[in-house]
């Protein structure tokens, strides 16, 4: 291996398990790693298991009393303190919750170290992207916010400008909250509109604190948005902001729950559009951030058909060994899928679409709800960056 890219992986991250029936089924992680291996990507990328994040590292983002509450809930799940968002239906407590959550966080922090110090250009932690966790509370299946911690480590190491791009169907509220008043971090979230989906935040007018106007960018799209319009929105906002902000590192979150098969949300993207977004983030990292790219997983609850394929594409792109979407999934992997889930695995690495989108500068349609959303975002944040909306 050349050291170009690293996959942060420890099999123990699959212990992040909220129990039977919970949407966040850890089999999605196992199936992703097995698909990566079945394609031989482990020969194109360094696989590294980093240590768990310690309390001082977790403290870059999380309060001391919250970390203590997570430890207590890990030892006594039945006594979890719901004031900290623990022991709720969304985020039930489980034994060793602190240890495995800190392990996932440690992978993202180590990936941030690697890209900043030049050990690797790209680092991927598909077990991460737990973007809802707040400084003092668990939320939305997320205990420790590894995305915020990775960004915080970059700042600690001397980064002056970091961009975070969140393509999960849900608003990246925890990361936005972490850096709301920090002009060194530009958070960009493309998500389903909060009026129809958790967490109920992420409107365009949420644009950063008094010390950092324009540092929070929210593109809130209507339910039902599909490939062409979603990609139009992404490319109508992100490239211009990147060119103006000039980030030294790019952190991206690739929740797979924008997919039309996902049971928890209402966007209708294909795997192919999700892959295009990952490819764009890779390109933007090289164009604007000297190749420094930390790529994370996130949501995604179609755990057989969707999650393993999109995150395998993500790893392949980071490894500079992209997989042709028309490629068949390996038979050996489909056998593993059936053995673990009693479901049939998807036959190809595509949904059969070839997404194309209309460039924003080709014209604005005032009657189109997605164009209205794009315009609202540009008007909310572009003036703070000296850009024309």
TrEMBL record:
The keyword Cell inner membrane does not apply. Transmembrane segments: none annotated. Signal peptide: none annotated. InterPro entries: AcuC, HDACs, His_deacetylse_dom, His_deacetylse_dom_sf, Ureohydrolase_dom_sf. Keywords: Acetoin catabolism. It comes from the Bacteria. Belongs to the histone deacetylase family. This is Acetoin utilization protein AcuC. It comes from Streptomyces litchfieldiae. The lineage of its organism: Bacteria, Bacillati, Actinomycetota, Actinomycetes, Kitasatosporales.
